[in-house]
Amino acid sequence: MESKEPVINVGILTSDVISFVLNGVYQCSNGENHSGEKQVLCKDGKIYFNNQFYDELVFTPVVSSTDFELKDVIIGINFHWERKENQRFGGSLKFIIDNRSLIAINEIGTEDYLTSVISSEMSATASIELLKAHAVISRSWLLKPMMSGNESFTKSANEAEITANEIVVWYERDCHSQFDVCADDHCQRYQGVTKSSVENVKIAIESTKGEVLVSDGKICDARFSKSCGGMSEHFENCWAPIHFPYLTPVYDLLPQTVASLPDLKNQKVANDWIRQSPPSFCNTTDKSILGQVLNNYDQETTDFYRWKVEYSQKELADIISQRSGIDFGEICDLIPLERGDSGRIIRLNIVGTKRSITVGKELEIRKWLSNSHLYSSAFVVDRLEFINNIPQKFTLTGAGWGHGVGLCQIGAAVMGECGYKYQEILQHYFKGASLERFY
Ligand SMILES: [Zn+2]
Ligand SMILES: [Zn+2]
User: Fold this and answer.
1) Count of domains observed in the chain
2) How many A from CA of 414 to the centre of ligand 2?
3) Do 195 and 251 belong to one domain?
4) 251 CA distance to ligand 1 centroid (A)?
5) CA proximity to 70, closest of 4, 19, 30, 11
6) Quick one: CA dihedral 301, 202, 104, 363, positive or negative?
7) How far away, in angstroms, is 117 Cα from ligand 1 center?
8) 37 and 97 inside one domain
9) Where are the alpha helices (DSSP H) in 246-341?
10) Ligand 1: distance of its center to the CA of 400 in Å?
């Protein structure tokens, strides 16, 4: 595998009006040089800048160390930490129009992009081995679709299997047609150069430069989530029905005692597992370790390994009807029909007084049952306080945070603290994959 470091197009912001500051001289694709405060608008389906209309506009820094600032960038879209920030970026600034809306795109080298992504995802206190492991999976995840062309990656939008009583939806990562990745959690959280001057992150990126996870001669689709909950999940239980040998269930503890792996696809076994708090790498309350993976606004959440959510009948019925667009009437029951290897529910039957529908996969379930997102779909349901056979209260007891496929970030942080090398961390979560230098 030999190649050149690719330039990444990151979609940052969509708005009718975008204000930005060029902190130095930029050459514009219209032949002019610009610096200082600027504004572009979307007008009659075109880009409107300095009394002229354009289909595309690119600002390239004359000196490569120059940066620019974008105003009012929304981060954490639809998550509980959603907020607006001004953000600074290296590389070039490109504006395009897609579907009559204006999009700001940052063109940036892969390694610079990764430095920012790892800095946004991780705290400066993270162990160097955790940062290296993260650099490799972020690089693999990023380069896989770009390098595999159409061969193994469809550019299709979200997939769905919808019948009258069943809605099974999953969300492919690569539903962007106008750029490679977006700057939000949908792809990888990218916040420009604001926090990218963390020394350990630079060291981790440089010492793993171009390194990716490989399986069967191809770059791995290296997924990760916050906490597996004790057991990681099959890829195909969260997304398209494709089997990746390196995205299979891993008990999040070493040494592996294979004989005792619980069968969490079984409802009874999953029920016991979720209600207990079994030992695993990510079963930790150590604030200094959690602080390595969870940025400030994420640390609002610490009950991720085992969590509880309580709803009144009205709250739950309102949330489900709002989030699904379907009126179920009063909610009678939430019945897990199928679980994955981590205990995550793949198909959930929602029984209401007006109708009954089965929903999947894990992310859709998490969306339907919360105003933001439920931490995970690995949960058990308790119905309480019945009036006329209708429960007035629901308690969801759950495990883990995120889809649980691939690397468990909190588990990996604990491994790093325990002295495991990044190669060992990657081996643990991505069974059978190997490390190769791509450029
Ligand atoms: Zn995205
Ligand atoms: Zn874990």
Assistant:
1) 2
2) 9
3) no
4) 29
5) 19
6) negative
7) 13
8) yes
9) 267-275, 287-293, 313-324
10) 22
Which residue type is seen at 282? C
Tell me how far the alpha carbon of residue 434 lies from the centroid of ligand 2, in angstroms: 21
Q: Is residue 252 part of a domain?
A: yes
pLDDT of the chain along its 439 residues, tens only? Answer: 557 899 999 999 988 999 999 999 999 999 999 999 999 999 999 999 999 999 999 999 999 889 999 998 877 666 666 778 899 999 999 999 998 889 999 999 999 999 988 887 777 788 999 999 999 999 998 898 777 654 434 434 456 677 778 898 887 765 688 899 998 877 888 888 865 457 889 999 999 999 999 999 999 999 999 999 999 999 999 998 899 999 999 999 988 766 678 999 999 999 999 999 999 999 998 888 888 887 665 566 678 999 999 999 999 999 999 999 999 999 999 999 999 999 999 999 999 999 999 999 999 999 999 998 899 999 999 999 999 999 999 999 999 999 999 999 999 999 999 999 999 999 999 999 999 998 9
State the Cα–Cα distance between residues 224 and 403, nearest whole angstrom. 8
Centroid of ligand 2 to alpha carbon of 281 (angstroms): 6
| CA 407 to ligand 2 centroid distance, Å | 8
What SS3 class is residue 213? strand
Ligand with an atom nearest the CA of residue 158: 1
Question: For residue 245, is it within any domain?
Answer: yes
Ligand nearest to the CA of 14: 1
DSSP secondary structure code for residue 266 in this structure: S
The verdict on residue 335 lying in a domain is yes
| Helix, strand or coil, per DSSP, at residue 220 | coil
- The rounded Å distance from CA 294 to ligand 2 centre is 14
Q: How far is the CA of 141 from the centre of ligand 2 (A)?
A: 19
Please tell me the distance between residue 416's alpha carbon and the centre of ligand 2 in angstroms.
13
User: Quick one: which ligand is closest to 282's CA?
Assistant: 2
**Domain residues for 304?**
237-405
